[in-house]
């Protein structure tokens, strides 16, 4: 071990900072956050530091450094770009055995400032011992992504209940198991959901009846359109926590790959034209696993609340008294547009967007076609594959021009993405000529034509009908 890690209590303790530029500013800000009394030595204060001085948050001691300024000081930070001065400060501090950090100069420093992840009171420090600060920063960024912002609230809660937890579990191993349960279970889920007071009650309740069964819950998670990069950080965290994952057929292998290795995976849901095999069975599975005390992730393509029957699933959970949370995902209409270069709104072409689904004859008849056919609107149709003849016929009947551009996006955001552009007049033939497969999303509106110029992902858009087939027709 090259350096000995320690966390210093600087509250009310004097720290001398030499320099008052931008680098010093950052150091001083951290020192003030830790409650230190900061004395600054510098020829000129930056505007921000001058303001701090006026607010009485720091003292401007002198223009020039002298070793006497080190009297009564706990720590020294040299943050000037004058190498000789930095050296003098370091040497003077060394002679008095005062800890000194020279910014970006490990050999001159007797202590290093780590990269930190602040979830106060929880604090994580990363250091490369000055040898590779970039690497430490990178590690910090990675960790930052994994640790929920609410971790600090959880740590605060643990702190408040610590004495009681200790009393209830004097045995270290059992106490550790209890903390583990808190982290995995309901208490931390409540904190994540912004319900800290309830979390505290739940913690105390669990303490009152130790050994009570762990309470399961369901996290309804949107997996996005397929590319794993389009998952949210919360979705990733949920996948890493899951005991069981109930996923739709639509969820890509790339996304499932990111789940906890030993999570049980169960494929449920959509086949063919978007009809669920047995929605009640899915409800039953969620409830059954949650009742066993498991963390169930119900993983859905896109967003769970956009044509995903997420609402029904929550109703079932609510009726069964199961706790739940929802993590939104990027819905196909938004994702496919981005990946095809189709701006959903555009000042010149469309001021509104409408999402609709047209998966069967029955749903087709319940749609408000007058509203769908409105000009200067982008229409995004989910599950439209089988109903394209009717879609064309109705939209034209209600006034949309046959020359309105359309785009079909198949497997949007995935490696095998295809984009087919043409006009409303030739819509069903476009799909037939190119043997359009599922999943695919249909855009109707002027912006669909922009895919020709703006496409950037995968193969270039396919233009119009297959000539031979068009001639034969
Ligand atoms: N909840 C999902 C939609 C489920 S309905 C969401 O928010 O995206 C299923 C329909 O979504 C498919 O029939 C198709 O129209 C569309 N879809 C989902 N993923 C898609 C993708 N990667 N490419 C094209 N369409 C997609």
Rounded Rg: 30 Å
Low-confidence stretches: none
Read across the widest sheet, the strand sequence of neighbours is 13-14-17-15-16-18
Strand content: 15-25%
What small molecules does the structure contain?
S-adenosyl-L-homocysteine
Helical amount among residues, as a percent range? Answer: 25-40%
Can you tell me the CATH architecture of the largest domain? Answer: 2-Layer Sandwich
Overall morphology: globular
Mean pLDDT: 91
Instruction: Count every helix, treating DSSP H or I runs of 4 or more residues as helices.
Output: 19
Structural write-up:
By secondary structure, the protein is an alpha/beta fold. The protein has four domains: 14-113, NAD(P)-binding Rossmann-like Domain (Rossmann fold, 3-Layer(aba) Sandwich); 151-208; 217-330, Tetrapyrrole methylase, N-terminal domain (Cobalt-precorrin-4 Transmethylase, domain 1); 335-472, Tetrapyrrole methylase, C-terminal domain (Methyltransferase, Cobalt-precorrin-4 Transmethylase, Domain 2), CATH 3.30.950.10. 38% of the residues lie in helices and 19% in strands. The protein is built from 19 helices and 18 strands. The protein has helices at residues 22-33, 47-54, 83-95, 133-146, 151-168, 172-184, 186-192, 196-208, 233-241, 253-256, 279-291, 310-320, 332-340, 361-366, 369-372, 388-397, 427-433, 451-454, 467-472; strands spanning 14-18, 37-41, 58-62, 75-78, 99-102, 115-119, 122-126, 217-222, 244-247, 264-267, 295-300, 323-327, 352-357, 377-382, 405-410, 418-423, 440-444, 462-463. A six-stranded mixed β-sheet has the order 13-14-17-15-16-18, sandwiched between helices. It has a five-stranded parallel β-sheet with strand order 3-2-1-4-5, with helices on both faces. Helix 5 runs parallel beside helix 8 (196-208), helix 7 runs antiparallel to helix 8 (196-208) and helix 11 (279-291) packs across helix 12 (310-320). The radius of gyration is 30 Å and the shape is globular. The protein starts with 13 loop residues before the first strand and ends with a helix. The mean pLDDT is 91.
